[in-house]
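#structure-requests
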Amino acid sequence: MRPLRACLGAAAAVTLAAAGTTALMASNASGATTALSNRWYAAAPYLMPLDNNPPNAATIMDATGLKAFQLAFVLAPNGGGCSPTWGGTAAVSSDTAVQSVINTIRSKGGDVSVSIGGYGGTKLGQTCADPASTAAAYQQVITKYGLHAIDFDLEEPEYENTAAIKNEIGAAKILQQNNPGLYVSVTTAGTADGTGWFGKQMLLEAKSQGFTPNNFSIMPFDGGFSGAAAQTSALTNFNSILQSTFGWDQATAYAHEGISGMNGRSDSGEYFSQADFQTVLDYTTNHHMDRFTFWSLNRDRQCSPPDNNGTTSGTCSSVAQNDWDFAKYSVKFAGVTPPTGTPTPTPTPTPTPSSTSCKTAWSSAAVYTAGNEVSYSGHNWKAKWWTQNEVPGASEWGPWQDEGAC
């Protein structure tokens, strides 16, 4: 991804190193879970799980219906070597912090893809000796987290390195062969012409190795783009590049094409509104494209002030919005209608008069779980879910059900 992401991601190593969350595996020793449909992995927006003021994934899922997240980024160790790390510092092999985020997502019926590379940093393709050793490093990530999807984000400065790109494309092909059903996306820089010289060289490398991922995605931002019209024009041009490179017809090229956008204000000061996202979404669905994603969920909330004083942030969008407005376009791409408004809570049943004795008095220090009963202010109350220090009756839609006078 782009420069802002590299700069703001530098603190990830500190956060990860300090994290001590105990990991609980989702379904088995490798953390594997049942795969989602490929459409969900194609719709997964990027999320830095432990940096850029990470939002709570469960909150986003509840608010939008989103099921898949693209976790970023796996890199080579900052000191060199051919082993996967988060952000260049925290070894994947000993990670518990990202695993905890994944467990939360999977516990709610979702899943993740992991993105390797991004803008800046040292990539494994640069430090590993060959495609086989590069693939072995990425296989550790797939095995550790039980992945069904992976994203190769190949851009500056790595994609200017011919040997590194050969390693990355070769590794992607090996992983595809060794992990049947693995969803593989390849993301690279976008230009008004579709993609630039280095992006075209990457495509030629894929062709020479006989490698075809689920999609090649471009990032049409930070390159003089102005709203959706410039982005859809770039996608049309990129489709022509795919046709000429691989000998595909137009429909086949679109079926292997994707877009990775940037919500709100880009690093270079372009603006992409919700209306722009809708226009691009319509283009991708009308042309039966394979992928629609964006950078990032960390930015999918309004700044304060909304325009962030004309600057770009890694933690908010710099445009007027409600939280998670942009994530809803990913949900639509997956073929699901996002919820609208605030979910209607289940009304508390009308209490039935009772002459029963009062239960043990409610305590602000005690922890109560569903079904526990207490008395408070002359009524008995039953807990509807886990609660602590929430006064019975204080909120109409709170955790306590009024069981009547006692």
